[in-house]
């Protein structure tokens, strides 16, 4: 059994910097992060060991300190302002690429476009993007096209971690559904997500089995799992090395490893070591 690592995988710079910011803030005093800093249990446990607590962006009573921090997924200006007005110190862990998506949406609205966001309804990043624009329309799938407003100008962006192909297909579908509207699209899928998606395509070509490492509620990890499953590969989604079972790999010849953007490189390294041990075990058992 051969093991192959994706060309691009795991922790992106946005998550890396947000973790570093939280750990640094925690050295200065109590800190509450307003949500899961990233959707990854290993990272959350590490932050908890630094004394960082978790609260909820929409619940002022959930803060266990006067210093709070917005997660890498961002928040609306309205939500930020409400915390400041309530007397909290608000540190911002929003990824610069999420901020860029906010700026692009704001610019579209200022130019008279009705805001449309392609993304997962209820996801914290999408809530943040749409929070300042009550008339924003969220398109998660083709079924939502029926909710598109009839407007002269539609300004479309997407959640940063959506698959590019899906976003482009939905933009085409929006143009078809509203032929009389001017549809302006700003591509806000982030480069680290695009890199991981294209590295996954390569891995799918080369492997019969894939291990995807990442949080069970991490959107971009689930996208990697979905893409590999649709391609017909055997896919195993794990959060950590201990979950790997030798049984899964009895028929495997080439096993690819990839990871979501909130997965620590150390976690992927331990998964690789465990897989190598499983490969040795299976090869010894076969002889
Ligand atoms: S996935 Fe992209 S947008 Fe999200 S934190 Fe990472 S770099 Fe930023």
Automatic annotation (TrEMBL):
Isopentenyl diphosphate binds at residues 39, 73, 123, 218, 220, 262. InterPro entries: LytB/IspH. Dimethylallyl diphosphate binds at residues 39, 73, 123, 218, 220, 262. Binds 1 [4Fe-4S] cluster per subunit. One of its GO terms (molecular function) is 4 iron, 4 sulfur cluster binding. (2E)-4-hydroxy-3-methylbut-2-enyl diphosphate binds at residues 39, 73, 123, 160, 218, 220, 262. The keyword Iron-sulfur applies. GO terms for biological process: dimethylallyl diphosphate biosynthetic process; isopentenyl diphosphate biosynthetic process, methylerythritol 4-phosphate pathway; terpenoid biosynthetic process. The active site is at residue 125. Its cofactor is [4Fe-4S] cluster. It catalyses: isopentenyl diphosphate + 2 oxidized [2Fe-2S]-[ferredoxin] + H2O = (2E)-4-hydroxy-3-methylbut-2-enyl diphosphate + 2 reduced [2Fe-2S]-[ferredoxin] + 2 H(+); dimethylallyl diphosphate + 2 oxidized [2Fe-2S]-[ferredoxin] + H2O = (2E)-4-hydroxy-3-methylbut-2-enyl diphosphate + 2 reduced [2Fe-2S]-[ferredoxin] + 2 H(+). Belongs to the IspH family. PANTHER family: 4-HYDROXY-3-METHYLBUT-2-ENYL DIPHOSPHATE REDUCTASE. Catalyzes the conversion of 1-hydroxy-2-methyl-2-(E)-butenyl 4-diphosphate (HMBPP) into a mixture of isopentenyl diphosphate (IPP) and dimethylallyl diphosphate (DMAPP). Acts in the terminal step of the DOXP/MEP pathway for isoprenoid precursor biosynthesis. This is 4-hydroxy-3-methylbut-2-enyl diphosphate reductase. It comes from Chthoniobacter flavus Ellin428.
């Amino acid at each position: 059994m051969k093991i192959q690592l994706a060309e691009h995988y795991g922790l992106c710079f946005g998550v890396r910097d947000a973790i570093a910011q939280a750990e640094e803030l925690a050295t200065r005093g109590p800190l509450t992060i307003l949500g899961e800093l990233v959707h990854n249990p290993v990272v959350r446990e590490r932050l908890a060991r630094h004394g960082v607590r978790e609260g909820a962006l929409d619940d002022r009573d959930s803060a266990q300190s006067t210093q709070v921090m917005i997660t890498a997924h961002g928040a609306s200006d309205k939500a930020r302002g409400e915390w400041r007005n309530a007397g909290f110190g608000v540190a911002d862990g929003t990824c610069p690429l999420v901020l860029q998506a906010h700026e692009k949406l704001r610019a579209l609205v200022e130019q008279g476009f009705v805001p449309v966001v392609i993304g997962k309804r209820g996801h914290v990043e999408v809530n943040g993007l749409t929070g300042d624009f009550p008339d924003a329309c969220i398109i998660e799938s083709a079924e939502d096209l029926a909710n598109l407003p009839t407007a002269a100008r539609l300004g479309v962006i997407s959640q940063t971690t959506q698959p590019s192909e899906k976003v482009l297909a939905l933009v085409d579908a929006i143009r078809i559904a509203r032929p009389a509207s001017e549809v302006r699209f700003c591509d806000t899928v982030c480069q680290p997500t695009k890199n991981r998606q294209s590295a996954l395509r390569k891995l799918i070509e080369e492997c019969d089995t894939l291990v995807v490492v990442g949080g069970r509620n991490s959107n971009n990890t689930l996208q990697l799992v979905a893409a590999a499953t649709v391609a017909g590969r055997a896919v195993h989604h794990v959060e950590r090395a201990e979950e790997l079972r030798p049984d899964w790999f009895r028929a495997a010849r080439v096993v690819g490893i990839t990871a979501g953007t909130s997965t620590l490189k150390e976690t992927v390294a331990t998964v690789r070591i465990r897989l190598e041990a499983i490969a040795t075990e299976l090869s010894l058992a076969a002889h």
